[in-house]
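STRUCTURE:
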């Protein structure tokens, strides 16, 4: 699990971002040191839960095994997955993530509503690497 990037489970699952106290810009992944808005003089950064839902801005599929530091077992066959760029409803920022297992690019359309849910990036006998994934909600924009 990437510590501090998300919290909760089920309907309480949320990605965590930060908001600048001066310009109100929201960032994901989190920012700890400074406001990334080049037009801002900077301010305190506050942790904020992000919208759970958004609309597909773009998508593609991953058909090759990515290089390190992505964790995969080279002994297992590579499973392609859909990668989705989602514009969050309230924040209007775009967040990338994998689609839930079983959802392919053939199931997706730009503008489709999706929600962030907990998912498993990889697991072995010792560790489960958790992450967020995007699941279609069935509501179109």
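SEQUENCE:
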């Amino acid at each position: 699990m990437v510590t501090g990037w998300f919290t909760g489970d089920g309907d309480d699952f949320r990605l965590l971002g930060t908001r600048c106290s001066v310009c109100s810009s929201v960032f994901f992944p989190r920012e700890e040191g400074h406001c990334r808005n080049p037009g801002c003089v900077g301010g305190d950064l506050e942790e904020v839960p992000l919208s759970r839902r958004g609309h597909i801005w773009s998508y593609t599929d991953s058909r090759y095994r990515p290089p390190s530091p992505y964790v995969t077992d080279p002994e297992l066959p590579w499973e392609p997955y859909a990668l989705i760029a989602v514009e969050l409803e309230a924040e209007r920022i775009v967040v990338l993530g994998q689609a839930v297992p079983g959802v392919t690019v053939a199931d997706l359309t730009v503008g489709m509503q999706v929600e962030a849910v907990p998912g498993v990036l990889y697991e072995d006998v010792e560790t489960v690497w958790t992450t967020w994934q995007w699941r279609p909600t069935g509501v179109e924009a």
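REMARK: The longest strand covers residues 128-140.
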